[in-house]
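Section handout 9: paired folding examples.
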Amino acid sequence: MRELIAERAAKELAPYSIINLGIGIPTLVADYIDDDLHILHTENGMLGVTSVDEEHIDPLVVNAGKLPVGEAIAASYFSSADSFAMIRGGHIDVAILGALQIDSSGKIANWAIPGRDIIGVGGAMDLLEGAKKIIITTSHTSNDGSPKIVDKCTFPITSQRVAEIIITELAVFNWKGGRYELTELMGDATLEEVKSKTTANYSINEGLLLEGEKV
Protein backbone atom coordinates (compact mmCIF):
# COMPACT_ATOMS: atom_id res chain seq x y z
CA MET A 1 0.00 0.00 0.00
CA ARG A 2 2.72 2.46 0.98
CA GLU A 3 4.73 1.71 -2.16
CA LEU A 4 1.64 2.14 -4.33
CA ILE A 5 1.01 5.60 -2.88
CA ALA A 6 4.66 6.64 -3.18
CA GLU A 7 4.91 5.52 -6.81
CA ARG A 8 1.77 7.47 -7.70
CA ALA A 9 3.05 10.60 -5.94
CA ALA A 10 6.27 10.48 -7.96
CA LYS A 11 4.22 10.92 -11.13
CA GLU A 12 3.16 14.38 -9.92
CA LEU A 13 6.74 15.69 -9.90
CA ALA A 14 7.87 17.90 -12.75
CA PRO A 15 11.46 17.55 -14.02
CA TYR A 16 14.10 19.62 -12.23
CA SER A 17 11.87 20.25 -9.21
CA ILE A 18 13.29 20.79 -5.74
CA ILE A 19 11.32 18.46 -3.48
CA ASN A 20 11.08 17.99 0.28
CA LEU A 21 9.94 14.59 1.52
CA GLY A 22 8.24 14.31 4.90
CA ILE A 23 8.47 11.40 7.32
CA GLY A 24 6.73 8.09 6.56
CA ILE A 25 5.29 7.32 3.14
CA PRO A 26 6.84 10.44 1.54
CA THR A 27 10.37 9.08 2.09
CA LEU A 28 9.53 6.15 -0.21
CA VAL A 29 9.05 8.53 -3.15
CA ALA A 30 12.86 8.69 -3.44
CA ASP A 31 12.76 5.13 -4.85
CA TYR A 32 10.61 6.22 -7.81
CA ILE A 33 12.35 9.34 -9.10
CA ASP A 34 15.37 10.01 -11.29
CA ASP A 35 18.22 11.74 -9.46
CA ASP A 36 19.14 13.44 -12.73
CA LEU A 37 15.69 15.03 -13.01
CA HIS A 38 14.69 15.75 -9.40
CA ILE A 39 16.53 17.31 -6.46
CA LEU A 40 15.59 16.21 -2.95
CA HIS A 41 15.90 18.63 -0.05
CA THR A 42 15.84 17.93 3.69
CA GLU A 43 15.32 20.54 6.37
CA ASN A 44 18.25 19.38 8.47
CA GLY A 45 20.56 20.72 5.76
CA MET A 46 21.09 18.70 2.60
CA LEU A 47 20.28 19.16 -1.08
CA GLY A 48 20.75 16.13 -3.31
CA VAL A 49 19.32 13.32 -1.20
CA THR A 50 18.99 9.93 -2.86
CA SER A 51 18.06 6.38 -1.87
CA VAL A 52 20.47 4.80 0.59
CA ASP A 53 22.84 1.99 -0.36
CA GLU A 54 22.18 -0.54 2.40
CA GLU A 55 25.73 -1.86 2.12
CA HIS A 56 27.34 1.55 2.55
CA ILE A 57 25.32 3.41 5.19
CA ASP A 58 26.94 6.49 6.71
CA PRO A 59 25.34 7.08 10.14
CA LEU A 60 26.04 10.80 9.80
CA VAL A 61 24.15 11.17 6.52
CA VAL A 62 20.50 11.23 7.54
CA ASN A 63 17.28 13.03 6.66
CA ALA A 64 15.15 15.14 8.99
CA GLY A 65 13.59 11.97 10.38
CA LYS A 66 17.07 10.67 11.31
CA LEU A 67 16.86 7.88 8.73
CA PRO A 68 19.95 7.05 6.65
CA VAL A 69 19.97 8.53 3.14
CA GLY A 70 22.29 8.50 0.16
CA GLU A 71 24.16 11.33 -1.50
CA ALA A 72 23.39 12.13 -5.12
CA ILE A 73 26.17 13.41 -7.36
CA ALA A 74 26.84 17.09 -6.54
CA ALA A 75 24.94 16.89 -3.24
CA SER A 76 25.56 19.80 -0.88
CA TYR A 77 25.37 20.38 2.86
CA PHE A 78 24.44 23.49 4.82
CA SER A 79 23.05 24.51 8.18
CA SER A 80 19.48 23.84 9.26
CA ALA A 81 19.00 27.63 9.43
CA ASP A 82 19.93 27.94 5.74
CA SER A 83 17.65 25.03 4.91
CA PHE A 84 14.68 26.71 6.58
CA ALA A 85 15.57 29.96 4.82
CA MET A 86 15.18 28.08 1.54
CA ILE A 87 11.75 26.86 2.64
CA ARG A 88 10.55 30.21 3.95
CA GLY A 89 11.94 32.00 0.92
CA GLY A 90 9.77 29.99 -1.46
CA HIS A 91 12.58 27.95 -3.02
CA ILE A 92 10.98 24.51 -2.51
CA ASP A 93 8.85 23.51 -5.48
CA VAL A 94 7.00 20.59 -3.88
CA ALA A 95 6.56 19.27 -0.35
CA ILE A 96 5.23 15.73 0.03
CA LEU A 97 3.85 15.26 3.53
CA GLY A 98 1.97 12.70 5.58
CA ALA A 99 -1.22 13.55 7.45
CA LEU A 100 -3.33 12.48 10.40
CA GLN A 101 -6.39 14.25 8.97
CA ILE A 102 -7.34 16.37 5.96
CA ASP A 103 -10.66 18.22 5.94
CA SER A 104 -13.16 19.63 3.44
CA SER A 105 -11.52 23.06 3.55
CA GLY A 106 -8.15 21.64 2.51
CA LYS A 107 -6.52 22.03 5.94
CA ILE A 108 -4.31 19.26 7.28
CA ALA A 109 -3.43 18.05 10.77
CA ASN A 110 -0.17 16.14 10.95
CA TRP A 111 1.74 17.04 14.07
CA ALA A 112 -0.26 16.36 17.24
CA ILE A 113 -2.83 13.99 18.71
CA PRO A 114 -4.14 15.30 22.04
CA GLY A 115 -3.09 12.98 24.87
CA ARG A 116 -0.49 11.10 22.83
CA ASP A 117 3.22 11.59 22.27
CA ILE A 118 4.22 11.66 18.60
CA ILE A 119 7.27 12.98 16.83
CA GLY A 120 6.07 16.62 16.68
CA VAL A 121 5.76 19.31 14.05
CA GLY A 122 9.29 19.38 12.63
CA GLY A 123 9.34 21.50 9.48
CA ALA A 124 5.73 20.84 8.46
CA MET A 125 4.40 24.31 9.31
CA ASP A 126 7.20 25.99 7.37
CA LEU A 127 6.80 23.64 4.41
CA LEU A 128 3.06 24.15 4.23
CA GLU A 129 3.51 27.91 4.16
CA GLY A 130 6.64 28.07 1.99
CA ALA A 131 6.47 25.26 -0.60
CA LYS A 132 4.89 26.07 -3.94
CA LYS A 133 2.88 22.83 -4.08
CA ILE A 134 1.70 20.42 -1.37
CA ILE A 135 1.06 16.73 -1.96
CA ILE A 136 -0.38 14.65 0.90
CA THR A 137 0.38 10.92 0.91
CA THR A 138 -1.45 8.88 3.52
CA SER A 139 -3.50 5.78 4.17
CA HIS A 140 -7.19 6.49 3.57
CA THR A 141 -8.15 5.50 7.12
CA SER A 142 -6.48 5.29 10.52
CA ASN A 143 -5.51 1.98 12.12
CA ASP A 144 -8.92 1.84 13.82
CA GLY A 145 -10.70 2.30 10.50
CA SER A 146 -11.76 5.90 11.08
CA PRO A 147 -11.60 8.22 8.04
CA LYS A 148 -8.63 10.53 7.64
CA ILE A 149 -10.33 12.68 4.99
CA VAL A 150 -12.95 14.34 7.15
CA ASP A 151 -15.42 17.21 7.13
CA LYS A 152 -13.47 19.12 9.79
CA CYS A 153 -10.18 18.30 11.49
CA THR A 154 -10.51 17.30 15.15
CA PHE A 155 -6.73 17.30 15.67
CA PRO A 156 -4.75 20.57 15.79
CA ILE A 157 -4.24 21.84 12.24
CA THR A 158 -0.74 22.48 10.99
CA SER A 159 -1.37 25.48 8.74
CA GLN A 160 -4.09 27.48 7.01
CA ARG A 161 -2.56 26.44 3.67
CA VAL A 162 -4.65 24.23 1.42
CA ALA A 163 -3.08 20.94 0.29
CA GLU A 164 -3.40 20.74 -3.48
CA ILE A 165 -3.34 16.94 -3.87
CA ILE A 166 -4.23 13.97 -1.64
CA ILE A 167 -3.06 10.49 -2.61
CA THR A 168 -4.19 7.40 -0.70
CA GLU A 169 -4.30 3.69 -1.51
CA LEU A 170 -7.90 4.21 -2.66
CA ALA A 171 -8.03 7.53 -4.45
CA VAL A 172 -6.46 10.74 -5.72
CA PHE A 173 -8.11 14.05 -4.87
CA ASN A 174 -7.24 17.42 -6.44
CA TRP A 175 -8.23 20.80 -5.02
CA LYS A 176 -10.43 22.52 -7.62
CA GLY A 177 -12.87 25.38 -7.29
CA GLY A 178 -12.74 25.54 -3.50
CA ARG A 179 -13.22 21.84 -2.83
CA TYR A 180 -11.61 18.47 -3.40
CA GLU A 181 -12.44 16.57 -6.57
CA LEU A 182 -12.00 12.81 -6.75
CA THR A 183 -10.04 12.46 -9.98
CA GLU A 184 -8.67 8.92 -9.86
CA LEU A 185 -9.35 5.57 -8.22
CA MET A 186 -6.33 3.54 -7.11
CA GLY A 187 -6.01 -0.20 -7.70
CA ASP A 188 -9.35 -1.99 -7.37
CA ALA A 189 -11.03 0.75 -5.32
CA THR A 190 -14.60 1.73 -6.17
CA LEU A 191 -16.51 4.97 -5.82
CA GLU A 192 -18.71 3.37 -3.17
CA GLU A 193 -15.69 2.24 -1.13
CA VAL A 194 -14.18 5.72 -1.21
CA LYS A 195 -17.52 7.23 -0.20
CA SER A 196 -17.90 4.84 2.75
CA LYS A 197 -14.45 5.72 4.08
CA THR A 198 -14.57 9.49 3.53
CA THR A 199 -16.60 12.02 5.53
CA ALA A 200 -15.27 15.13 3.77
CA ASN A 201 -17.36 16.94 1.19
CA TYR A 202 -15.97 16.31 -2.32
CA SER A 203 -17.02 16.20 -5.94
CA ILE A 204 -16.38 13.42 -8.45
CA ASN A 205 -14.75 13.90 -11.83
CA GLU A 206 -17.21 13.12 -14.60
CA GLY A 207 -14.80 10.66 -16.14
CA LEU A 208 -15.17 8.41 -13.08
CA LEU A 209 -18.94 8.29 -13.13
CA LEU A 210 -20.20 5.10 -14.70
CA GLU A 211 -23.65 5.07 -16.25
CA GLY A 212 -26.24 3.97 -13.71
CA GLU A 213 -23.75 3.81 -10.80
CA LYS A 214 -25.03 5.20 -7.50
CA VAL A 215 -22.67 7.47 -5.53
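Moving on to protein 2 of 2.
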Amino acid sequence: MKAPSLLGRVRVVLSRTSHPGNIGGAARAMKTMGLGQLVLVAPHEFPSEIATARASGATDVLASARVVDTLEVALEGTVFAAAMTARRRELSLPMQWSREAADTVAGYAAQGDVALVFGNETSGLSNEELALCQLPVMIPTNPDYSSLNLAAAVQILCYEMRLRLSASAPAPDGLAAPASFEEVEGFYGHLESAMIRSGFHDPSNPRRLMARIRRLFGRIRLEREEVGILRGILSALDRKVD
Protein backbone atom coordinates (compact mmCIF):
# COMPACT_ATOMS: atom_id res chain seq x y z
CA MET A 1 0.00 0.00 0.00
CA LYS A 2 1.43 3.40 -1.02
CA ALA A 3 2.12 5.81 1.84
CA PRO A 4 0.40 9.21 1.70
CA SER A 5 2.35 12.09 0.20
CA LEU A 6 3.98 14.61 2.49
CA LEU A 7 2.08 17.25 0.51
CA GLY A 8 -0.75 16.55 2.95
CA ARG A 9 1.33 18.27 5.64
CA VAL A 10 1.57 21.56 3.77
CA ARG A 11 -1.06 24.15 4.64
CA VAL A 12 -1.58 27.29 2.58
CA VAL A 13 -2.51 30.24 4.77
CA LEU A 14 -4.08 33.36 3.21
CA SER A 15 -4.19 36.33 5.58
CA ARG A 16 -6.81 39.08 5.24
CA THR A 17 -7.58 38.32 1.58
CA SER A 18 -9.60 41.20 0.13
CA HIS A 19 -10.96 39.62 -3.07
CA PRO A 20 -12.79 36.26 -2.92
CA GLY A 21 -11.72 35.47 -6.47
CA ASN A 22 -8.16 35.12 -5.24
CA ILE A 23 -9.28 32.56 -2.67
CA GLY A 24 -10.85 30.51 -5.45
CA GLY A 25 -7.77 30.92 -7.64
CA ALA A 26 -5.55 29.78 -4.78
CA ALA A 27 -7.73 26.71 -4.20
CA ARG A 28 -7.42 25.82 -7.87
CA ALA A 29 -3.63 26.28 -7.75
CA MET A 30 -3.43 24.05 -4.69
CA LYS A 31 -5.51 21.22 -6.11
CA THR A 32 -3.55 21.09 -9.38
CA MET A 33 -0.42 20.46 -7.31
CA GLY A 34 -1.99 18.01 -4.85
CA LEU A 35 -2.32 20.26 -1.78
CA GLY A 36 -5.54 20.35 0.22
CA GLN A 37 -5.05 22.29 3.48
CA LEU A 38 -6.33 25.86 3.08
CA VAL A 39 -6.61 28.23 6.06
CA LEU A 40 -8.13 31.71 5.72
CA VAL A 41 -7.30 34.41 8.25
CA ALA A 42 -10.07 37.02 8.51
CA PRO A 43 -11.02 37.05 4.80
CA HIS A 44 -13.02 40.04 3.60
CA GLU A 45 -15.63 37.75 1.99
CA PHE A 46 -16.00 33.98 2.33
CA PRO A 47 -17.81 31.83 1.38
CA SER A 48 -18.48 33.46 -1.96
CA GLU A 49 -19.92 32.52 -5.33
CA ILE A 50 -16.98 34.34 -6.91
CA ALA A 51 -14.52 32.14 -5.06
CA THR A 52 -16.42 29.03 -6.13
CA ALA A 53 -16.40 30.12 -9.78
CA ARG A 54 -12.68 30.91 -9.75
CA ALA A 55 -11.89 27.57 -8.11
CA SER A 56 -12.91 25.83 -11.38
CA GLY A 57 -13.81 22.55 -9.74
CA ALA A 58 -11.55 22.72 -6.70
CA THR A 59 -14.64 23.17 -4.55
CA ASP A 60 -13.54 20.41 -2.17
CA VAL A 61 -10.55 22.56 -1.15
CA LEU A 62 -12.90 25.48 -0.49
CA ALA A 63 -15.38 23.31 1.40
CA SER A 64 -12.69 22.02 3.76
CA ALA A 65 -11.02 25.43 4.26
CA ARG A 66 -10.75 26.65 7.84
CA VAL A 67 -11.57 30.27 8.64
CA VAL A 68 -9.81 31.74 11.69
CA ASP A 69 -9.43 35.18 13.22
CA THR A 70 -5.66 35.44 13.61
CA LEU A 71 -2.47 34.12 12.07
CA GLU A 72 -1.50 32.71 15.46
CA VAL A 73 -4.47 30.36 15.32
CA ALA A 74 -3.75 29.47 11.69
CA LEU A 75 -0.22 28.38 12.58
CA GLU A 76 -1.16 26.23 15.58
CA GLY A 77 0.24 22.72 15.20
CA THR A 78 2.93 23.65 12.66
CA VAL A 79 6.66 23.08 13.07
CA PHE A 80 7.70 25.61 10.41
CA ALA A 81 6.17 28.53 8.52
CA ALA A 82 7.47 30.34 5.44
CA ALA A 83 6.10 33.83 4.81
CA MET A 84 5.84 35.31 1.32
CA THR A 85 6.98 38.93 1.08
CA ALA A 86 7.54 41.27 -1.85
CA ARG A 87 10.26 43.28 -0.12
CA ARG A 88 13.03 42.93 2.40
CA ARG A 89 12.11 44.06 5.92
CA GLU A 90 14.20 45.67 8.62
CA LEU A 91 15.00 43.23 11.46
CA SER A 92 13.51 40.31 9.55
CA LEU A 93 15.18 36.90 9.42
CA PRO A 94 17.49 36.04 6.50
CA MET A 95 15.44 35.70 3.30
CA GLN A 96 15.44 32.84 0.79
CA TRP A 97 14.25 32.77 -2.81
CA SER A 98 11.25 30.55 -3.46
CA ARG A 99 13.15 27.58 -4.93
CA GLU A 100 15.67 27.42 -2.10
CA ALA A 101 12.88 27.98 0.44
CA ALA A 102 10.94 25.00 -0.92
CA ASP A 103 13.89 22.76 -0.04
CA THR A 104 13.94 24.18 3.49
CA VAL A 105 10.19 23.76 3.99
CA ALA A 106 10.28 20.23 2.56
CA GLY A 107 12.86 19.21 5.15
CA TYR A 108 10.54 20.27 7.96
CA ALA A 109 7.50 18.62 6.33
CA ALA A 110 9.17 15.29 7.08
CA GLN A 111 8.69 16.11 10.77
CA GLY A 112 5.26 17.74 10.93
CA ASP A 113 2.85 20.24 9.44
CA VAL A 114 4.34 23.26 7.68
CA ALA A 115 2.74 26.46 6.38
CA LEU A 116 3.10 28.71 3.35
CA VAL A 117 1.78 32.11 4.43
CA PHE A 118 0.52 34.77 2.03
CA GLY A 119 -0.60 38.28 2.95
CA ASN A 120 -3.20 40.75 1.75
CA GLU A 121 -3.15 41.59 -1.97
CA THR A 122 -2.40 45.28 -1.37
CA SER A 123 -0.38 45.48 1.84
CA GLY A 124 1.05 41.98 2.14
CA LEU A 125 1.90 40.61 5.58
CA SER A 126 2.35 42.99 8.47
CA ASN A 127 5.67 43.03 10.31
CA GLU A 128 3.90 41.41 13.26
CA GLU A 129 2.63 38.57 11.07
CA LEU A 130 6.04 38.11 9.46
CA ALA A 131 7.59 37.80 12.92
CA LEU A 132 5.43 34.72 13.60
CA CYS A 133 7.10 32.83 10.73
CA GLN A 134 10.58 31.32 10.59
CA LEU A 135 11.49 32.16 6.99
CA PRO A 136 10.79 35.20 4.77
CA VAL A 137 10.50 34.12 1.12
CA MET A 138 10.63 36.17 -2.07
CA ILE A 139 9.77 35.12 -5.63
CA PRO A 140 12.41 36.34 -8.14
CA THR A 141 10.21 38.50 -10.35
CA ASN A 142 11.11 41.14 -12.94
CA PRO A 143 12.43 44.09 -10.86
CA ASP A 144 10.83 46.51 -13.34
CA TYR A 145 7.41 44.92 -12.88
CA SER A 146 7.21 42.83 -9.75
CA SER A 147 3.43 42.85 -9.27
CA LEU A 148 2.35 39.23 -8.87
CA ASN A 149 -1.24 38.09 -8.43
CA LEU A 150 -1.89 36.28 -5.15
CA ALA A 151 -3.18 33.10 -6.79
CA ALA A 152 -0.17 33.09 -9.13
CA ALA A 153 2.18 33.33 -6.14
CA VAL A 154 0.36 30.41 -4.51
CA GLN A 155 0.71 28.42 -7.75
CA ILE A 156 4.47 28.97 -7.87
CA LEU A 157 5.06 27.85 -4.29
CA CYS A 158 2.71 24.88 -4.58
CA TYR A 159 4.54 23.78 -7.73
CA GLU A 160 7.90 23.99 -5.98
CA MET A 161 6.55 21.95 -3.06
CA ARG A 162 5.15 19.30 -5.39
CA LEU A 163 8.55 18.83 -7.03
CA ARG A 164 10.00 17.94 -3.63
CA LEU A 165 7.16 16.17 -1.82
CA SER A 166 5.04 14.36 -4.42
CA ALA A 167 6.72 11.11 -3.35
CA SER A 168 6.77 10.14 0.29
CA ALA A 169 10.11 10.35 2.01
CA PRO A 170 11.26 9.28 5.48
CA ALA A 171 12.39 11.90 7.96
CA PRO A 172 16.09 12.70 7.49
CA ASP A 173 18.37 10.91 9.96
CA GLY A 174 19.97 12.89 12.76
CA LEU A 175 17.47 15.75 12.89
CA ALA A 176 16.07 16.59 16.31
CA ALA A 177 12.37 17.38 16.64
CA PRO A 178 11.73 21.04 15.81
CA ALA A 179 9.81 23.11 18.34
CA SER A 180 6.18 23.64 17.42
CA PHE A 181 4.68 27.08 16.82
CA GLU A 182 2.97 26.96 20.22
CA GLU A 183 6.20 25.97 22.00
CA VAL A 184 8.20 28.80 20.41
CA GLU A 185 5.50 31.39 21.12
CA GLY A 186 5.26 30.11 24.70
CA PHE A 187 8.99 30.64 25.08
CA TYR A 188 8.81 34.20 23.71
CA GLY A 189 5.97 35.02 26.10
CA HIS A 190 7.89 33.51 29.04
CA LEU A 191 11.07 35.41 28.10
CA GLU A 192 9.26 38.73 27.75
CA SER A 193 7.56 38.25 31.12
CA ALA A 194 10.89 37.39 32.77
CA MET A 195 12.58 40.44 31.29
CA ILE A 196 9.79 42.70 32.54
CA ARG A 197 9.87 41.17 36.03
CA SER A 198 13.64 41.57 36.24
CA GLY A 199 13.47 45.23 35.18
CA PHE A 200 15.50 44.64 32.02
CA HIS A 201 12.57 45.31 29.68
CA ASP A 202 10.23 48.30 29.96
CA PRO A 203 7.09 47.57 27.89
CA SER A 204 6.28 51.30 27.80
CA ASN A 205 9.59 51.88 26.00
CA PRO A 206 10.14 48.62 24.11
CA ARG A 207 12.88 49.80 21.69
CA ARG A 208 11.86 46.95 19.36
CA LEU A 209 13.49 44.54 21.79
CA MET A 210 11.15 41.61 21.14
CA ALA A 211 11.52 42.01 17.37
CA ARG A 212 15.29 41.75 17.76
CA ILE A 213 14.99 38.74 20.06
CA ARG A 214 12.68 36.97 17.60
CA ARG A 215 15.25 37.59 14.88
CA LEU A 216 18.04 36.26 17.11
CA PHE A 217 16.34 32.97 18.00
CA GLY A 218 14.63 32.66 14.62
CA ARG A 219 17.99 32.36 12.90
CA ILE A 220 18.78 29.12 14.74
CA ARG A 221 15.28 27.55 14.39
CA LEU A 222 14.78 26.22 17.89
CA GLU A 223 14.37 22.53 18.59
CA ARG A 224 11.88 21.19 21.13
CA GLU A 225 14.58 20.18 23.60
CA GLU A 226 16.26 23.58 23.31
CA VAL A 227 13.01 25.36 24.14
CA GLY A 228 12.67 23.14 27.20
CA ILE A 229 16.18 24.06 28.33
CA LEU A 230 15.63 27.78 27.80
CA ARG A 231 12.32 27.77 29.65
CA GLY A 232 13.91 25.79 32.47
CA ILE A 233 16.57 28.50 32.80
CA LEU A 234 13.89 31.20 32.81
CA SER A 235 11.90 29.36 35.49
CA ALA A 236 15.00 29.10 37.68
CA LEU A 237 15.68 32.82 37.25
CA ASP A 238 12.01 33.58 38.01
CA ARG A 239 12.39 31.83 41.35
CA LYS A 240 15.46 33.94 42.15
CA VAL A 241 13.55 37.14 41.30
CA ASP A 242 10.68 36.02 43.57
